[in-house]
User: Fold this.
Amino acid sequence: MSGYLTGVLVVLAFNVMAAYAVYLPMAAGQLNLGIAGFMAVGAYAAAYLTNEMMWPMWMAIPIGSAAAGLVGILIGIPVLRTHGIYLALATFALGQVIAAIFLNLEVVGGAAGYPVTEFASPYVVFAAAIGVTLFMVLLSRTRYALYLTAVKSDPTVADLMGISVRGIQVSAFALGAAVAGFGGAFYAHHYNFIEAQHFSVLLSVYTVLYVLFGGTQTVWGPLVGAAFFTLVPELLRASEQWRYALFAMFIIVFMALRPQGLITASLFRIFRRRPKAAAGTEAQGKGASA
Amino acid sequence: MLTQQIINGLMLGAIYMLVAVAFTLAIGVLNFLNFSIPGLFMLGGVATFGFLKMGWPFLLAAAGALFIAALVSLLVERLAYRRMKEGDADVPLVSSLGFLVLLENLVLIRYGSDQQAFPALFPDMNLRVGGLVIGIVQLVSMAISLGLVAWLSWFLRTTNAGRRIRTVAENRETAMLMGINIERLVPQLFVCSALLAALAGLLFAINYQQVTPFMGEGIGFKAVAAMIIGGMGSIWGAVIGGLLIGLAEVLSVSFIGADVVNITVYGLLLVILILRPQGLLGRPPAREKL
Amino acid sequence: MTAATPALEIKGLQKSFAGVRAIRDLSFTVPKGHATALIGPNGAGKTTVFNLVSGVYGIDAGSIHVNGTDITRMPSRQRIRSGVARSFQNIRLMGHLSVLENLLVGQHVRASSLCALITPYRLIPNHKWKREARRALEESGLGQYADETVGALPYGVRKRIDLVRATLAGANVLMLDEPAAGLNPSETNALRDHLKALIASGLTLLVVEHDMHFVDSICENVVVLNFGEKIAEGPLSVVRKDPKVREAYIGSDEE
Assistant:
């Protein structure tokens, strides 16, 4: 693999992890505009453990992820009292506060940034991204994922069906934070340097943009969105600014034409319909005789 | 010293106030958190700068910049806001973020990311009152801002057009039944809020004699905080919030340090969102009916 | 709990919205294993009673017992576990989920362990939850819709899926809010058979319905509400002749 290709794929891997971190709470109806803050928590916590406590990377990274998840629970409980625009703004403010705290935290380098000694190779990063993707695919096959959608589309009825709306909301928020922290921890150990400025609002915003571009109805949307956002500008050989400008233009036009995102659930059902029809009657036959 | 800082804080607060009023118009009447407003703010400064560089006289350059901002805002209305009824409730918010990213990167491509010096248009005159220094330009721009907001508030309270706008804000269906032409009113509001934002950007450029592609972010996002703190949809709330944020920023810079500004401002926003999401002057949000 | 314990017992229920008294001192009981209808002119407070029992709103005074359990102060989320489930007048299904997925949401109370929550049931062919939901659909003659997106289905079908979802909670008391509204005659007949089968299997029904022929064919007892007050109670044939009931329906032409 050429150095260039490896570099692009590593960026893709980080974008995929970030995308799923945004996707999880969004599946439950929460727009998290502060996901970069949780990446920062994971990155700094894991880096501190390998740098100062001499922990091995394979222990430090899960703990970094757990730290981000814990911050997610602690903050999610009060913040999730708000809804809609208020919640989006609260997460937005949260991202700003977390980044600003690390900017002022001298023990991890403050504004000068924080060099990280342990190195995670590209293959480790790929494995992490694939692991996150598999986890999300598996999760999307469970009742938990079904309840995320239920809570998003009608919280009142979900509550009357006996679903703990608040439990689902807080857990989705925290799980998203943990995934963000996981990606952040790998980011720190792959690039061997982190600075608070990197984890800006714009990082959160770009991630949200490509997740919505991919679509939030199925688990494949974020993957497609991240791949599109990473690879297409590479193919066009666009400069950094043109990449963002083009992408923004694309997002605006796309959202106006297809606000539900590229990959939708009904799209899948159309593809599945024909083979399913035969299998369906068979299953029904069994059901009736049982 | 403290009095001087308070004066500086209020001067900066007047800029926040204008942008916060622009946000509050969009959210109070249209229920749209329009994140393109920071981009329009930046356009107000940068486009004036560009026209001046082309040799245009100041008034023409300023008018040209305001005109461009209004045009872009109409585009936002067309492509982001009109699609609100379909898809996720978050789509217009995200589309407007797309506009912000697009504007920033287009300006970045044209002028580069460096800070550009905005020419000093007026002789540097100061009022000296008992050891306090007050710039005449700053004083005039503060007077313009306050005058404009006072006029807007008067307009909404007493004129027929203002009453129509308030009816739409109260209840869209009622407004439609009363024969108010919403299709025409909405673009007018978008233009109005764009002019406020762009004028604020212009005043900022004149006062601080600098423009950058990203000047809208810092100011615009803090203006969102100001709007929430004052109470969404309330004009005088935006005024109070803007001045408060300006004060909080200047005071924390001078007494604690520049790096903690984001912690104070966004921390304050977070606390308000959790404890009193309707802000200081706002009304509590309506609840869902079954 | 004895056989005499009513399935649903409402005593002295009071509820005001912004000073307007929506329910005034309402008391009635629904005996086990029978269907009872809650009828009355529009705006009489029938749906409000459902909302108070399922906990959408808190009550001002009174008490609600389900199967002998006091649920008056219980959070809305837990009430379904005490044995009372409901359908919705304005069909509250999750539009972009499939029919089967909506039914799986309805099963939640019986599948709420952590294990059930994180089992990737969709990867297991013919998993018991899916099998059960399919069978319930089959039994009400809606089997062919299992994999359709709910939002795309006709009104009558959605209405009946809303009912099937309510039955899957395993509750013994079902509150059905206008189950026959908007159905065509053949759908109404299918619904009637379905409800009769439910009663035969031992379930208790409380039905809000405007179609008096339908009520007559299903329910043994009716409770008549007007302006949030009970004005009559008893078999429909008797209640019909009650002058107060006739008065309440004047202008809105009985049925």
About this structure: Strands of chain A lie at 114-115, 193-194. Chain A touches chain B through 46 residues (CB under 8 Å).
